[in-house]
Design brief:
The complex is a heterodimer of chains A (184) and B (371).
Chain A (H helix, E strand, L loop, with lengths): L1 E9 L4 H14 L3 E6 L9 E9 L13 E4 L2 H7 L8 E5 L13 E5 L1 H8 L5 H12 L5 H11 L8 H21 L1
Parallel strand pairs in A: 1-4, 4-5, 5-6
Antiparallel strand pairs in A: 1-3, 2-3
Helix pairs in contact in A: 1-5, 3-4, 3-6, 4-6, 5-6
Chain B lengths: L3 E4 H11 L4 E4 L6 H13 L3 E4 L3 H13 L4 E5 L1 H17 L3 E7 L15 H5 L10 E3 L4 H18 L2 E7 H5 L1 E4 L34 H21 L3 E4 L6 E4 L2 H16 L4 E6 L1 E3 L3 H10 L2 E6 L4 H10 L5 E5 L8 H13 L8 H10 L4
Parallel strand pairs in B: 2-3, 2-4, 4-5, 5-7, 6-7, 10-11, 10-13, 13-14
Antiparallel strand pairs in B: 1-8, 6-12, 9-11
Helix pairs in contact in B: 1-2, 1-6, 3-4, 9-12, 10-11
Classes of the chains: A alpha/beta (184), B alpha/beta (371).
């Protein structure tokens, strides 16, 4: 069993961190995992992406052309990666940052206003955790509980006070995705 | 040790610290900067030497000098920086000193870019510096393998008084994987009979790569070659995947090897009898093992992130035992498994025949007008 997940957005939206949290959770569950960043002359506000591969056996390529799951946090990422998602796959779109719906009808798409929900919780930086929550609501690789445990285990002590809001963000993301799927 | 998620460059740097690295000398260049960054904090913390030199030339010559004292020393760089170091590398080889070098390859030639590449194979394996010398070159395909090979590189360098290189590319340097790091080993300064470690109360020792008397220089060369023979006999390392019943064998090292693994699995799922041979020591090269493999498969495919630099070593090993094909991506482009799968499917459908030049056939396919 192997699953690949792509995270993409503006630098500063936490897409790299989102991928890392997923990688930590996968590792803690005893899985093989790779986290591969796009690296280059990157800067805040530019585009950033990473691919996480989770598997039961030795992982070959850390990059794939057509991932079965993608989380896109802004419009340029939606434009670029929507066509690449594997047929039958999952696409999580940060609806707060795009002005269109997804065009594919052969994949499951979740439109989630991650920035708006994050502001409701009280910290706009939580948009990435809401998006991961939505991803886990659609993908049977890891649970919101696994992610929360990984955050708790690997977050440096000085950030521990942020955990409750992160947990809430993960939960709200997953709930939103489940609700949207049952309406589809 | 528990499994922890580490970035490749940082894990390699920490593995060197735990292998008893006593002195590091380097100069920044992407995509290997995290090695310097990590060591700039860790080495002083442990009371060990970290020097950011004024250039790669400075760094390699500081390594040269420090190695003369018998200390465990290392430098790291990326392709253009390694090119700059070649003079010093040849001097170190000529002086017969143990040094570890890490090359995190990037796209080239020239300043190129900072994307992953395997374009340094020839300059590292076949010596970019002048003279007859052979570095030991280990090419890990994952962060765990890299971390396991770092202490070995130091041990081999010291055992054979030879340069040992860890050859990776930017993707292994930049990616993260779960890693079990080696135990911390103490710094041990060996009292080599040649080390220039203070001559108080003993005869002065001189280390140099200058042998103006040609007959002595020839002796030094012959000694290096005899030692290299011993290395070739004892230090070949490789990993095989699904080769037991394989009719097609893919050969790739480092990142292109692990990408090929995904393609091999996909081809197996389609019923193609195929396996992967991944050289871990690209120098000494597993020539005998590849020759044997060539005798029992119908065809072979070499995959690299360069224009066929290792292919030449494979060709030497295989001779006319099996038809060879080649697939490469250049300039920092990393192949997707699907591209390699396409090549495998092509070979499975129309088995190649012996002879001709696989690199030429590949170039013709790469530059053919798109249909």
């Amino acid at each position: 069993m192997q699953t690949e997940i792509l995270f993409a957005g503006f630098g500063g939206q936490g897409v790299m961190f989102a991928g890392q949290v997923l990688a930590y959770a996968a590792m803690d569950k005893g899985k093989q995992v790779t986290w591969m960043p796009s690296y280059g002359p990157e800067m805040r506000g530019g585009t950033a992406n990473c691919i996480v591969v989770i598997a039961d056996e030795e992982i070959g390529s850390p990059l794939v052309q057509n991932p079965p799951a993608a989380v896109v946090m802004n419009l340029p990422s939606l434009d670029k990666y929507e066509p690449l998602v594997k047929s039958g796959g999952v696409l999580i779109v940060n609806a707060s940052m795009v002005d269109r719906t997804a065009q594919r009808d052969d994949i499951t798409t979740i439109l989630i206003p991650a920035n708006d929900i994050a502001e409701e919780i009280g910290d706009k930086r939580l948009a990435n955790m809401i998006a991961i929550g939505a991803l886990l609501g659609c993908l049977d690789i890891l649970t919101v509980k696994d992610l929360a445990a990984a955050l708790e285990a690997h977050m440096p002590g000085r950030h521990k006070h942020l955990l409750p809001k992160n947990f809430e963000a993960l939960r709200k993301g997953a709930e939103h995705a489940k609700k949207q799927r049952s309406n589809q | 040790m528990p499994r922890e998620l580490w970035k490749g460059n940082e894990a390699i740097a920490e593995a060197a610290v735990r292998a008893g690295l006593e002195g590091y000398f380097g100069y920044p260049i992407t995509p290997q900067n995290e090695i310097l960054e990590w060591l700039s904090q860790r080495m002083p913390e442990l009371g060990r030497a970290f020097v950011q030199a004024e250039s790669e030339l400075g760094a390699i010559n500081m390594v040269y000098g420090a190695a003369c004292t018998g200390a465990r020393v290392m430098t790291s760089s990326s392709s253009p920086g390694i090119s700059l170091m070649q003079e010093g590398i040849s001097y170190i080889a000529g002086t017969e000193l143990p040094v570890v070098l890490i090359d995190v390859m990037r796209g080239g030639p020239g300043l190129g870019n900072i994307a992953p590449s395997q374009g340094d194979y020839s300059q590292i394996v076949h010596g970019g510096g002048h003279g007859d010398y052979h570095p030991i070159v280990l090419a890990p395909a994952s962060i765990q393998e890299a971390v396991d090979l770092v202490p070995l590189a130091f041990d081999l360098a010291e055992k054979y008084l030879n340069i040992a290189v860890i050859l990776i590319d930017g993707s292994i340097g930049q990616m993260m994987e779960p890693v079990e790091l080696p135990e911390m080993r103490p710094v041990v300064r060996k009292d080599y009979p040649w080390a220039t470690n203070g001559a108080l109360g003993r005869k002065r020792r001189v280390l140099s790569s200058i042998y103006l008397e040609v007959s002595i220089e020839e002796e030094v060369n012959l000694r290096l070659l005899k030692r290299w023979e011993e290395i070739q006999q004892n230090e070949v390392r490789f990993k095989e995947y699904y080769l037991d019943d394989a009719e097609i064998a893919v050969i790739g090292f480092g990142t292109s090897g692990r990408i090929a693994l995904s393609a091999v699995r996909a081809a197996r799922a389609q019923g193609i009898k195929i396996g992967l041979f991944r050289p871990i020591s690209v120098s000494p090269f597993p020539a005998r093992q590849i020759a044997e493999l060539a005798g029992r498969v119908k065809s072979m495919l070499v995959v690299e992130m360069n224009a066929g630099q290792m292919l030449k070593d494979v060709q030497l090993a295989v001779g006319n035992r099996a038809p060879l094909e080649f697939y490469g991506r250049l300039g920092g482009v990393v192949p997707f498994p699907d591209e390699i799968l396409g090549e495998i499917q092509r070979i499975a459908k129309e088995p190649p025949s012996l002879g001709g030049n696989p690199a030429q056939r590949w170039l013709a396919r790469m530059t053919a007008p798109k249909k």
